[in-house]
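queue> holo job accepted (flavin mononucleotide)
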Amino acid sequence: MKKVMEATNAMFPLPVVLVTSGDGKKDNIITIAWTTNICRKTPCIGIIINGKKYSLDLIKEHKEFIVNIPGQKNLKEVDICGGKHGDKVDKYKLTGFTKEKAKEVKASMIKECPINIECKLEDIYVKETSNLLIGKVLKLHIDEKILDNNGKIDYKKLDPIVYAQKTYFPLKEGIAKRGFGLK
Ligand SMILES: Cc1cc2nc3c(=O)[nH]c(=O)nc-3n(C[C@H](O)[C@H](O)[C@H](O)COP(=O)(O)O)c2cc1C
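queue> job finished
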């Protein structure tokens, strides 16, 4: 029997990313688990920033942000960036992360993250205290070390972090290829 529960955020797991913003000198990093792809033809991604956050101010000011995808080797830094506010501390100094110059936006990319996605802020959709920031992808940087022989991302090599119920999880093996059920 299924129990009917009060409405809650039941979507899981969610990939953890580090979103950077700023002008390349005064930069900030925020840990975000609420992300999504939005459209394919003009690649756009969405991130949710809930409530008043320093990153929200910076992204609104510069109209740009970068989605950096960390591997599990950066788990501690992910946790730190999600527990401190950038108007009070320099999270690059706190974590030891290295700034890497982006191609199209002023904010820095995190060198230690194998994937960096430069985005231009296109839209903000506000519902209650949540801000859905829609970013048009301008440039994508991928460390060659995490690519397979066909030039595709090898998720085993990326070793991403997923998040649910205040817990970090690994991403396990793929279990089947799409379309297998149609054969
Ligand atoms: C694993 C994890 C996931 C998080 N996901 C989100 C999120 O999706 N949206 C959000 O607004 N805050 C999220 N947070 C909280 C922010 O990262 C946190 O409030 C941060 O300190 C804000 O930094 P800032 O004030 O420097 O921008 C998350 C924190 C952690 C640890």
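queue> Residues 54-62 form the longest helix (9 residues).
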